[in-house]
Specification:
2 copies of one chain form a homodimer. Chain A is 38% helix and 25% strand. Chain A is globular. Chains A, B: GO terms for molecular function: ATP binding; magnesium ion binding; thiamine-phosphate kinase activity.
Chain lengths: 292, 292
């Protein structure tokens, strides 16, 4: 059973689960676990790990269109080193500060692998779900995609500072709140743009047709991509990007853009489910970040 | 740096941390990470793991005297097996049901070691801290101690059903709320009774003098203890018991007992800090559950 099948199973058993975050009486809660082997390439600092792990949960709060209020993290490592722990907490505090949330501590433990479990809390009266996109809507993405794909190349190339810098993404909490009144469906691109579109399509029972030349690609992708095909794969098929992907009525696009504190790119349209997920008219593979 | 030093460091950096749970605007949040090697002996079922890991976080909510509202868990294992995951979720849901909280899902991941990170949420207008105990107060404990020590012996003896049964402790959420109006200080005994008394003593700047013959010991300890010294160690020095330890004014003891849905034993008195932590007049070693 791969992670997506398992998550689907979990969602079926639990009515409040199955979106980026659960919402109980207006309280938003989401949790994520990250591991050294799969999530923190060699060279990732503990400061970056603190930022990124807590940021991943804040991004899930953002994806509900909610205000982020607080976060906690549980930290396990083979040994607890003072400087590493301080750096981790500093990163966690800084990413919370960046979105106006409070980092309120956590748990510590020894474990065989460096592992972080972060939980973020938020508040919203009107959560935006993955379901709700309608044919004719515009599909949009905040910021630029491919940032994590570029970061992974930077780490591979031993360009550690650049890798860490790219890894510390800004969670789109303010953008999520600005888009919430307009969006019919929203999620974050933590599994990559292509996979996110497939997940939105499944939850909303629609299709998508996006245009490659409208997809905003991070500058760093250009630096590391080996050719045009590689550039496309880095931008759409790697994931862990933490931008917001949303659908909204075409008439709202102007207002949504005006409200959003980050650039909002209209990358295509919502189609009927029978059309599937397409880029430039061709089927877009459901590729991205999946733990097998 | 052992876990306690690290937690102290974390608490110093974060004003909201340093107790069983953080409290932000009346919202209680706490997170815990548990690992197969240290927390789930061979024979622990996934149902029990779900119950126990989520229960540990609910116990932290209880220790603040708060109502438990919701919980999430992140689950990592070398492979995601359907039956194991179903059993885990069932245990998590059942322990939440037992205290009137809602289990709202979580995250799934593959990792080298079976690891669970659970987060519980609660609400309270008047959290009970570890600080606040005053000389002359009575020190009390809910239920009975030594349950986990007995469970570990059961697992060692291959009495797996008994071990699992003992491992599925009832989180004292209702008791915590009943005691909150009376308690001057409270925490759960997740590090063992002796260590909990030392932690309360440190936070409240007091001492304790408890009597061994007043400490309520779980029946199963009797079954597995090899002699009188072993019985004492199992009851006070092993930990992970998840009972509540609190201090309250002597005049409130009757009311607190009447309010508590579980037996409340008065095991001694709060003394001056200079007296230290004593049992039957002798220093009680600060022994218990510490990850080195």
């Amino acid at each position: 059973m791969d992670e997506r099948s398992a998550l689907r199973r979990l969602a079926a058993a639990l009515p409040a689960a199955g979106d980026d975050a659960a919402v109980v009486d207006g309280l938003v809660v989401t949790t994520d676990m990250l591991h050294e082997a799969t999530d923190f390439p060699a060279g990732t600092t503990r400061y970056t790990a603190g930022w990124r792990s807590v940021g991943a949960s804040l991004s899930d709060v953002a994806a509900m269109g909610a205000d982020a209020t607080a976060a906690v993290a549980a930290y396990a490592a083979p040994s607890l080193v003072e400087e590493e722990l301080d750096a981790f907490v500093e990163g966690a505090v800084d990413v919370c500060d960046a979105v106006g949330a409070e980092y309120v501590g956590g748990d510590l433990d020894t474990g065989t692998e460096f592992t972080v479990a972060s939980t973020a809390l938020g508040e919203t009266d009107a959560p935006v779900r993955r379901s709700g996109a309608e044919p004719g809507n515009v599909v949009c993405v905040t910021g630029t995609v491919g940032r994590t794909a570029a970061a992974l190349r930077a780490f591979e190339a031993d360009d550690v500072d650049r890798g860490n810098d790219l890894f510390r993404f800004p969670p789109r909490v303010a953008a999520g709140q600005a888009l919430a009144p307009h969006a019919t469906a929203m999620m974050d691109s933590s599994d990559g743009l292509a996979r996110s579109l497939h997940q939105l399509a499944e939850a909303s029972e629609v299709g998508f047709d996006v245009s490659w030349d409208r997809i905003p690609v991070h500058d760093a992708v250009e630096e590391y991509a080996t050719d045009a095909a590689d550039r496309k794969r880095m931008a759409t098929g790697v994931g862990e990007d933490f931008e917001l992907v949303c659908a909204l009525p075409r008439a709202s696009l102007g207002d949504a853009r005006a409200a959003s504190p980050v650039p909002l790119s209209a990358i295509g349209t919502v189609t009927e489910a029978s059309e599937g997920v397409r880029m430039d008219g061709e089927p877009l593979a459901d590729e991205g970040y999946t733990h097998e």
